[in-house]
Design brief:
The protein is α/β, with parallel strands linked by helices. The protein has three domains: 21-141 and 303-348, Rossmann fold, CATH 3.40.50; 159-291, Rossmann fold; 360-594, 3-Layer(aba) Sandwich (Rossmann fold). The protein is 30% helix and 19% strand. α2 (56-64) links the parallel β2 (50-53) and β3. The longest helix is centred in the middle third of the chain and has 19 residues, at 376-394. The radius of gyration is 31 Å and the shape is elongated.
Length: 605
């Protein structure tokens, strides 16, 4: 990209984080108790401000696990001012998520596989799942609350623990224990089955021991040499403890999950005798295989959630559209696309960037190899070509000394170039030292302020400008729709709005959308491209007069070694210019009307 400073104006509307959290686990029939148990553990870690939304029939189960009854609510859409909500429902209907998003409440989804996934603010995948699902913001089984490894080795399996959750809708407990009886193996092993509170019609052989009302399953692991279960939290807990684990799954989907995670699997609904005997005969190998599934590093999910900077849920910052869907997710940010206007915008999970004087010196030098002032002449030379285009667009106005406001002027190289070709220049920037340099060294009027709150009458004693420019600034505004309205208000009919921004359809984007977005700074709130720029500017009363593709770097796309092969590099450069594949672009638009009143609905986030 061109060696120019990025604009520094950011609209901040940030609410302070308070521990007022609602957690909604899967709690319907056939959902089992694993999600409720996980949510109870999470609520305890999050603190006293975390509440569970449970139906009345599940309240007793939560209270048996010593979760306070006053922190259990039956109406999830209560008027309590939640800071955010957490869904752990496997497949959440989109309508449920939207009810909270419409109320301005961010939504965190855990292991979400339903239609609501693309609309959630933040997605966490803990349990490994196969398939081409959309990337989560973060995902790792290290977030599971697992026991410490204590078992040091299993030579011979004698005591087997059988547990298939609190409901076992496929009756896998009876299936496994009945198979052992059929194979005449119950006399060889001491088998204990955990009987969940929602078991129905279970039929177990007399030799099988029964356990009920188990509040802390990992607490009884030391009594056993092996665990038989289906895909879920129990298998990970037992493996982390150091026990061999075998999965008997209720269906092909759970078998797929087991194999993807790395667990040994002995069948679907009915166990396979040969497979069971092979695993049980080499318990230490089985144990080692299961232990490899568990990460050495453990993280607390509650700490990750508390670290997130969550403001209002995402709505389109350009047109105010509510229906947005995720386009890409990363640990520190999500990108959403608007179904109404097509905007692609960033929702960061980190506090706003605070720009200080170091940007123009050490930070700028680290990025470009020289300080901003050392690069002043180069940026000024780039400005000359831009000013020629602007003057051509203004030629019909007949203004002998047109006025020009440069928003995000930095140390003023563009203003200096504009002054030399006959413009009456004015600048604003949020950097104190940059504005002082423009005033005292370049002798050009400048003010230290952000564009959103800038009132030209109070600063420069004028209400409008012939030209308004923003060089690598517009993407830094969190509400560009409001900014475009203001630009329109500051220009007379025929006035020119010129800006540059990274290109969301350039060569780097085309090579890898995901890498392009991942490397984009968190304070680039919108991703522009030439076609979309024309459409949006028209809605805000502008007509594009010229769009210029810039920032052509074919060596970044094909090979850094191209710099030494000048002929090939020259050909690729020509192709890049012809197809307008630059990593940045410039827009020169004329004010030809007023903003479309139907688009005056903007995000307040």
């Amino acid at each position: 990209m061109a060696k120019e400073p990025f604009g520094k104006t950011i609209i901040q509307s940030i609410s302070s984080m308070t521990p007022n959290i609602l957690i909604l686990p899967a709690s319907k029939k056939r959902d089992g108790f694993g999600h409720i148990k996980r949510c109870i553990d999470l609520a305890e870690d999050l603190g006293t401000g975390a509440y569970l939304a449970l139906p009345e029939e599940m309240r007793d189960f939560a209270e048996t696990l010593n979760f306070p009854g006053h922190r259990i609510i039956s109406n999830a859409l209560t008027d309590r001012p939640w800071d955010f909500v957490i869904f752990d429902k496997r497949k959440t209907p989109a309508e449920e998520v939207r009810e909270f998003l419409k109320r301005g409440i961010p939504v965190i989804a855990v292991d979400e596989g339903g239609p609501a996934r693309s609309e959630c603010t933040f997605c966490i995948d803990i349990l490994p799942k196969p398939g081409n699902r959309e990337f989560p913001n973060c995902g790792d089984i290290s977030f599971l609350k697992l026991p410490e490894t204590r078992s040091t080795g299993i030579r011979v399996v004698k005591n087997i623990l059988v547990t298939f959750g609190g409901e076992d809708p496929a009756d896998l407990t009876s299936s496994f224990c009945g198979s052992l009886e059929k194979w005449d193996l119950l006399s060889k092993y001491n088998v204990t089955a955990v009987i969940g509170p929602l078991f129905q019609g279970i039929d177990l052989p007399e030799q099988v021991n029964r356990l009920g009302n188990i509040k802390n399953l990992p607490g009884i692991f030391p009594q056993y040499d092996c665990v038989v279960t289906s895909f879920g939290l129990t298998g990970f807990e037992a493996a982390a403890f150091g026990l061999p684990v075998m999965h008997l799954n209720p269906g092909r989907y759970h078998r797929k999950l087991s194999r993807f995670a790395g667990f040994p699997e002995i069948g679907i609904r009915k166990p396979r005798k040969r497979t069971f005997l092979r695993f049980i005969s080499d318990a230490e190998t089985l144990r080692s295989q299961c232990l490899r599934i568990i990460p050495e590093k453990r993280e607390r999910l509650s700490e990750k959630i508390h670290s997130l900077f969550l403001k209002r849920p995402p709505s389109c910052p350009v047109c105010g559209g509510f229906y947005v869907k995720s386009a890409a997710r990363f640990p520190g940010k999500s990108y959403f696309s608007c179904s109404q206007c097509g905007a692609l915008f960033c929702y960061p999970f980190t506090p706003p960037v605070v720009y200080n004087n170091e940007y123009f010196f050490s930070e700028y030098k680290a990025q470009y190899g020289k300080t901003y002032l050392e690069d002043f002449s180069h940026i000024k030379n780039l400005s000359e070509g831009r000013l020629k285009i602007i003057k051509a667009c203004l030629s019909h106005n007949g203004d002998s000394e047109p006025s020009l406001l440069d928003a995000g002027c930095a140390f003023g190289p563009f203003l200096q170039a504009a002054k030399e070709v006959g413009f009456s220049g004015f600048g604003i920037d949020v950097s104190v030292i940059a504005v002082e340099y423009v005033r005292k060294t370049l002798h050009i009027p400048a003010d230290c302020s952000d564009f959103a709150g800038f009132i030209p009458e109070n600063v420069f004693s004028r209400a409008s400008f012939s030209v308004l420019t923003m060089w690598y600034v517009i993407e830094h505004f969190s509400s560009p729709g409001l900014i475009l309205e203001k630009v329109n208000a500051l220009l007379p009919p025929g006035g020119i709005f010129a800006f540059s921004t990274p290109n969301g359809r350039g060569a780097s984007w085309r090579k890898s959308h995901r890498k392009f977005l991942e490397s984009s700074p968190n304070d680039h709130f919108t991703v522009w491209n030439p076609r979309w720029a024309r459409k949006i500017l028209k809605k805000y009363g502008f007509t594009c007069r010229k769009i210029r593709s810039t920032g052509h770097h074919p060596e970044r796309i094909w090979s850094a070694g191209l710099k030494k092969r000048k002929i090939i590099l020259g050909l690729l450069m020509a192709v890049s210019r012809l197809l307008r594949l630059g990593d940045t672009f410039e827009v020169y638009a004329e004010k030809t009307g007023s903003p479309d009143p139907h688009w005056k609905r903007h995000s307040t986030s």
